[in-house]
């Protein structure tokens, strides 16, 4: 296999992993005001992702580093042209991470409410902007002959990209609500399932519109097949959640995000950054890639490192697989052990 094709596939795999895992993190953060009735509920919600949220974010770091090493021209064009949205995403992720760590440091309600708002905002902004960014990549942006972005930030706010942002926002929101049904008990679990059902129905309508637009305007046969698979698994996830089969619902939701991301990459291939003004200026997997020797070294490194990373992440999720309950939070509050969200 051509190493450029291989690394295009690896980049796609890394972003699939990031959006599936960080997606439910974002969804849990956005669900905070909808499922929580008091501070104990909010602490339960936050603790469902407490052991794993930072581990999930490492997928973005690995994806970014791999993109820089394997496709430096793509990385340079993307991060220069999309500088402001990516900077906003970075700031939002920092605010969100700080909130997880500082929320429990003081007992005042206003202190906690302030950080709760930061968690919600820091989850919603990246969930929306990632969709905007990837939709623009698929749609194409104006590039000059040197592959430099020649548009403005307002060119990125086109109807297709905004629909892509709403789609990822709703997908992650629903994914997080389904995750909460897996990790909580009692009334919180019931509220989470009800939220997942309502959000899931809306997500079906919006995601279907975006996938149809993508396939008809930019798609290929593989993209059509993947989009159809995403639609089927999304509908099946909503049905499974209605029937109370939360494990099936979560798995199907993860598959939905997987197929949706792969639809975008399939629509993109063999380009990595299409030029909307002149196809001759487009970046492809060939003219954007590193040297064959660099890709060969990276391939051997990935062959050794990726299985270890996947094994460690699987082990982490296994260790923290149990549900988080109000009883656990209340027990910690009455113990001498400092409480941690």
From TrEMBL:
One of its GO terms (biological process) is aerobic electron transport chain. Keywords: Cell membrane, Electron transport, Heme, Iron, Membrane, Metal-binding, Transmembrane, Transmembrane helix, Transport. It is a multi-pass membrane protein. It is found in: Cell membrane. GO terms for cellular component: cytochrome complex; plasma membrane. One of its GO terms (molecular function) is electron transfer activity. Pfam families: Cyt_bd_oxida_II (PF02322). The keyword Heme applies. The chain crosses the membrane at residues 6-32, 74-98, 119-140, 160-182, 194-215, 221-242, 249-269, 297-320. The keyword Nucleotide-binding does not apply. Its main location: membrane. Belongs to the cytochrome ubiquinol oxidase subunit 2 family. This is Cytochrome d ubiquinol oxidase subunit II. It comes from Mycetocola zhujimingii.
């Amino acid at each position: 296999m051509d190493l450029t094709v291989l690394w295009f596939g690896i980049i796609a795999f890394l972003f699939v992993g990031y959006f599936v895992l960080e997606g439910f993190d974002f969804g849990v953060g956005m669900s905070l005001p909808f499922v929580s009735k008091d501070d104990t509920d909010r602490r339960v919600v936050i603790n469902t992702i407490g052991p794993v949220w930072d581990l999930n974010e490492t997928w973005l770091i690995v994806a970014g580093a791999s993109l820089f090493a394997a496709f430096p021209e793509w990385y340079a064009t993307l991060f220069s042209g999309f500088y402001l949205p990516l900077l906003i995403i970075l700031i939002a992720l920092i605010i969100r991470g700080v909130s997880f760590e500082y929320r429990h440091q003081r007992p005042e309600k206003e202190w906690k409410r302030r950080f709760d708002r930061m968690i919600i905002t820091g989850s919603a902004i990246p969930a929306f902007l990632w969709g905007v960014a990837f939709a623009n990549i698929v749609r194409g942006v104006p590039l000059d002959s040197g592959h430099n972005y020649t548009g403005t930030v307002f060119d990125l706010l086109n109807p297709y990209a905004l629909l892509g942002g709403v789609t990822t926002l709703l997908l992650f929101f629903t994914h997080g609500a389904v995750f909460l049904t897996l990790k909580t008990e009692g009334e919180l679990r019931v509220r989470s399932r009800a939220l997942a059902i309502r959000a899931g129905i809306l997500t079906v309508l919006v995601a279907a519109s975006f996938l149809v637009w993508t396939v008809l305007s930019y798609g290929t046969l593989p993209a059509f097949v993947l989009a159809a698979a995403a639609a089927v698994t999304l509908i099946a996830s909503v049905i499974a959640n209605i029937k109370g089969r939360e494990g099936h619902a979560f798995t199907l939701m993860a598959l939905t995000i997987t197929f949706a991301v792969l639809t975008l990459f399939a629509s993109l291939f063999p380009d990595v950054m299409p030029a909307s003004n002149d196809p001759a200026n487009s970046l492809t997997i060939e003219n954007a890639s590193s040297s064959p020797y660099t890709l060969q070294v990276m391939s051997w490194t990935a062959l050794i490192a990726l299985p270890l990373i996947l094994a460690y992440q699987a082990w982490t999720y296994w260790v923290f697989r149990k549900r988080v309950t109000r009883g656990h939070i209340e027990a910690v509050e009455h113990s001498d052990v400092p409480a941690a969200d």
